[in-house]
User: What shape does this take?
Amino acid sequence: MSKPLIQVSELRKYFNVREDGKRATLKAVDGVTFDIAERETLGLVGESGCGKTTTGLLILNLIKPTGGEVLFEGSSVFDPKNKKNIRRNMQIIFQDPYASLNPRLRVADIVGEPLVIHGLAKGLAIDARVKQLLGYVGLSAHQANRFPHEFSGGQRQRIGIARALAVEPRFIVCDEPVSALDVSVQSQVLNLLKDLQDELDLTYLFIAHGLNVIKHVSDRVGVMYLGTVVEMANASDIYLKPLHPYTKALMSAIPIPDPSVTRERVLLEGSVPSPIDPPAGCVFSARCPKATDQCFAARPLYHEYLPDHWVACFHV
Amino acid sequence: MDDQALLSVEGLKTYFFIDKDVYRAVDDVSFTIRPKRTLALVGESGSGKSVSASSILQIVPDPPGKIVAGTIRLEGENLLDKTENQMRKIRGKKISMIFQEPMTSLNPVFKIGKQIEEAILLHQDFVDASGKKLPKREVKKLARQQTIDMLAAVGIPNPAQRINDYPHQLSGGMRQRVMIAMALVCHPKLIIADEPTSALDVTVQAQIRKLLRKLQDEFDTAVLLITHDLGVVAENAHDVAVMYGGQIVEIAPVDEIFARPLHPYTQGLMLSIPRIDKDEQKLYVIEGTVPNPAYFPPGCRFALRCPKAQPRCHAAIPELVYLTGDHAVRCFIAQEKYWTVSESLVRESAVVEVVEEGLDGGSEAVEVLNEALDGGSEAVEVIEEVLDV
Assistant: This one.
């Protein structure tokens, strides 16, 4: 693995909430540690509320952490002195292509705005650069004067990608970029993201709940549950040799589009518990088919069980 | 068309009239569902699958929606001839529906027990052995008991207490179980499930799908499953109808359609999804986007995105033609290819017959064989195969 571009250590984000009139702490992200190497795609999967989006926002310093550190090329993203540098180099593509584009701006202004803010181009140079960016994402130059509502979901997502690329970032958080799109359009956007990565040497943190999508785009995959990463390994290992009982259950819950394939099923009971007052022991203990007394009492250490294969479970 | 059919939809057209445009959301859709079977209606957003389902129950908002043509027969009776009052007796009793979003389809201000009981009280007659109506108190007690039993059947723990919960007190998976309980409580012949698991978490989705299959067996219900997820289709459906641009483009049993998809759209759809059991570097891409139902092209609805399209595809809409007993496709090219292949198969089997006859015939055999050989090189191959040369 080459030198890490992003280093995340012991990242934590707690929200103060009220439940039944009492103060409570919602532990959205609770001690997450990982590296992302240059030109790598790290996938984060998990069910709703597991903290994957919060992790993405924390890495970009879009929300303040409760604890922990995120380094971009060795310097802290939380340091105010680095702010301009961080915004230039780290960008985000959002899930909802309808909500993330200003409906009153033309495409040229949406994509051109980051150039103006960062002083990367002036006057006619902006137009030229916008045209180039639209070309990258497969839109034509004459579409620059249109408004977002004139585009389909897939095209809007392309506009969002062009905007993220405008400042020539090196790292992009892709937060569920294809979940809102139709199947036939999904593959267009996934291929585009892959091509752009090869062309522009991008590093991605790819967040999704669709395991098939994550597997397709990622080099390594981290599985999150209740604010912690329970397992992380290369994409093929995590799918072929999952170690954590939650990962196994998650894999087997995905229906395979082929009626001739039959598989062994691990069906979980119940649903994800609330991140308010999570279990004291292992986060997964309440639903784990293998849980023992030890699992309810203490939290298992997240350790490197095999080379580059990290897992937090007493039973592996 | 199929005398075993529980539900048969024929030539259904549901249009929406908005401003001066006509949106042909469902445009000539025909399918049948047999008892206890699951038919999956697959397609992308805007393909007309949900409107087809709403048309069956006649819950399409009118205006602007209107069923302009077709018949929908449930056990032989055309539902489109029924009055609104008659339809009320069918909805929830003979056909019920499970919606995608359990939070918005349950009433937030009533306890879940009450909402399920409502269906029972509306649709069931409670009579004693002599056929006399039971007193109200008795009826309420029986309905309550049925509700509790039904909630237990869908896997809700402590159903006797849970009937007093409001929808917001339940998790998404539990709410969907309540929806299923409500749909099944009057033992309908058909359930329409519109993306029943799409709004749920992955591990909960698997639970709900398993529950639906189990209950379908127990209650002998047929299911019209509406989904965009081919994985769900492969796991749950017996038959599959693929929709595109308001029309069914291909219909076949599930094993058949996954093994031999004939329509270019079905083929593209299957290739374009990333799979967890396979490694692929590049995904297959269907170029372009779904056409606007107000401005469909004159020819095949898929022609503009079809890699195989020929001039005739842009000129006329192909018919949905059954090539075998249960596999139909709406594509000129797939139909032609199938017929050419089957014609040559017919020719080959004729030659084989001749040869076999010839071999039995003894002395005459050579003559017959020579005749058969005039059939050209294809015939020779067949003969060699038969003779095991």
